[in-house]
Design brief:
By secondary structure, this protein is an alpha+beta fold. It contains six helices and 21 strands. InterPro entries: Flag_FlgI (IPR001782). Assembles around the rod to form the L-ring and probably protects the motor/basal body from shearing forces during rotation. Its main location: periplasm.
Length: 381
């Protein structure tokens, strides 16, 4: 039997904290460091989804459908649908005003290996001038692929994530009312063959072109599964010899995708969104020593009405003129010396010292890149 001496409350608490800290450190040391898996940087070529689209009608709207006088195709599409059901309007009948019907475009994504009978989600968007699709029902709509063949059939009640009301010339709306979604609203009618089991090899396509990553993927496969199985063809593709038996090939791909890759530093890149002013830098971005001068230029134009009154009994007319006042102000820019920044935190700190807005940083980063002080690829989206 082991006897544990009782400690005073304060000493015991400190000892327990030390033991807990030691246990956490030991557990952290025992856990492996997180590393990217092959499935997160590459995918098997040929295993891909396919885009489907179709043209259909949404019915059951509460008077918020298309205005058929401006959208005659809605009336034509509804007449075609009725003719297929054996109903035709008498000759000479005025075209009906279909306030509860809207023409829509239906889109869906056919996942890889989808089989007939499986359900997929569809998105529905108005293509006319319907005010709202809320509460509508999509009638049977064939969805076609790029080859013109029908791969799915969509139908169902729509889910619209918005709300709105209008009265007396006032209108209140939350979110978007002219687009919605039907979860599981399409049924697959035809499968798309994939070349997964064709040939003696499979090809891994990297998500981004990088020779270093391609070399590491091939090296990891050859080290962990078998020598000479993988070959990096270029910076984007890796060819791997795989078993011919379908079951064995699926197991092989499952094990291959779970292989961890050694840590690597990505290519330095700065992504700039010129529309929103967003700037994103990755951890590999470095900054060389440089000097930056930054100043602001503002122009203010104000207009003041000036009234000219005629003299008494002169039968003249009052004239209203505009007096414009233009002011140009330029803040004094100061030269800021930016030291070499080998880490991302240093780069961010150096840019913050400029006191510039994100829109100003767009021009500043482009100028730094042109001077050769920014060691990164600059991408504007």
């Amino acid at each position: 039997m082991i006897t544990v001496p009782l400690l005073p409350s304060s000493a015991g608490a400190r000892a327990l904290r030390r033991l807990a800290a030691f246990g956490v450190l030991a557990l952290a040391a025992a856990l492996p460091a997180y590393a990217l898996r092959i499935k997160e940087v590459a995918a098997v070529q040929g295993v891909r989804s396919n885009q489907l689209t179709g043209y259909g009608l949404v019915v059951g709207l509460d008077g918020t459908g298309d205005q058929t006088t401006q959208m005659p195709i809605t009336t034509q599409a509804m007449q075609n649908y009725l003719q297929q059901a054996g109903i035709s309007l008498p000759a000479g009948t005025t075209a009906p005003q279909l306030k509860n019907v809207a023409t829509v475009i239906v889109t869906a994504e056919l996942p890889p290996f989808a089989q007939p009978g499986q359900a997929i989600d569809v998105s529905v968007a108005s293509m006319g001038n319907a005010k709202s699709l809320k509460g509508g029902t999509l009638i049977a709509t064939p969805l076609r692929g790029a080859d013109g063949e029908i791969y799915a059939l969509a139908q169902g009640n729509m889910v619209v994530g918005g709300a709105g009301a209008s009265a007396g010339g006032s209108k209140v709306q939350i979110n978007h009312l002219s687009a919605g979604r039907i979860p599981g609203g399409a049924q697959v009618e035809r499968s798309v063959p994939t070349p997964l089991h064709d040939g003696e090899t499979i090809t891994l396509g990297l998500n981004a072109s990088d020779f270093q990553t391609a070399r590491k993927v091939a090296s990891t496969i050859n080290t962990r599964i078998g020598s000479g199985l993988a070959t990096a063809l270029d910076g984007r593709t890796v060819q791997v010899r795989a078993p011919m038996d379908p079951g064995s090939r699926v197991n092989f791909i499952a094990e291959l995708e779970e292989l961890p890759l050694p840590d690597s530093t990505p290519a330095a890149k700065v992504v700039i969104n010129a529309r929103t002013g967003s700037i994103v830098l990755n951890q590999a971005v470095t900054l060389g020593p440089c000097a930056i001068a930054h100043g602001n230029l503002s122009i203010t134009i104000s207009s003041t009405p000036v009234i000219s009154q005629p003299a008494p009994l002169s039968q003249g007319q009052t004239v209203v003129a505009q007096k414009s006042d233009i002011q140009l102000k330029q803040d004094g820019g100061k030269v800021i010396q930016v030291p070499a920044s080998p880490q991302l935190a240093d780069v961010v700190r150096a840019l913050n010292t400029l006191g510039a807005t994100p829109q100003d940083l767009l021009a500043i980063l482009q100028a730094i890149k042109a001077s050769g002080a920014l060691n990164a690829e600059l991408e504007v989206i």
